[in-house]
Amino acid sequence: MDEVVKARVTGAAPEGASDPEAASRAVREMFTAIAPRYDLLNHLLSANVDKLWWRRTAKAFSTILSRPEAKVLDLCCGTGDMAFALRRQGSGPAITGADFSHTMLTRAAGKTRESQKMRWIEADALRLPFPDENFDLVTSAFGFRNLADYDAGLHEILRVLRPGGECGILEFSEPRGLMGKIYNLYFKGVLPRVGRLISGSSGAYSYLPASVQRFPEPPEFLERMRAAGFRDASWNRYTFGIAGLYRGKR
To answer: Do β-strands 71-75 and 94-99 pair in parallel, antiparallel, or remain unpaired?
Structure first.
């Protein structure tokens, strides 16, 4: 029964949100509230493994990032860590980070050196202010599952990608077996308590494990990517399946 319900999930649904607009608003408010401690908690709660995941994801797109004329969009960019990993992998392409949290973008801009040639845009991932076929690469790291409509998000990514362009969605997943038991103990028990203590937010770090549990399993999400129009859809597991990279081409 649980699998049937999960297969029909439209998108993120924070507690108390009754419709997609309310869900988007609740997510924005949560991330605005935790922005001051966001980087610290990401690194602390993942034991810095998150940095490895960003580097590995950026390396997966090294061919595109080696092209000086390439245009890259990092969606739901938060404070910019994925975008900065892309910049370190390739110094030439124009990189744009987009997020609907002004507070997160302010922190990303504060971490940016003038020589990095990066720009930050406040935008809704479901209504991007970019023309069709504008980017060679679109990435998203641990933000896609917060969209109020996953399928609409995939279609919007496809819209702004040039023919032959690629997307990479780095997201959490739920590992199986013994690792899955350890993961659940930490992710659903320890992490919310530590996150609440440091960030001062009572809901954001309880929402995190709930949002991961709600997100489609890899086979279903790959099916959704194909249905949206992506070809060569694949999933590459990271760190025992705690996270993984979804890839697809237009």
So the answer is: parallel
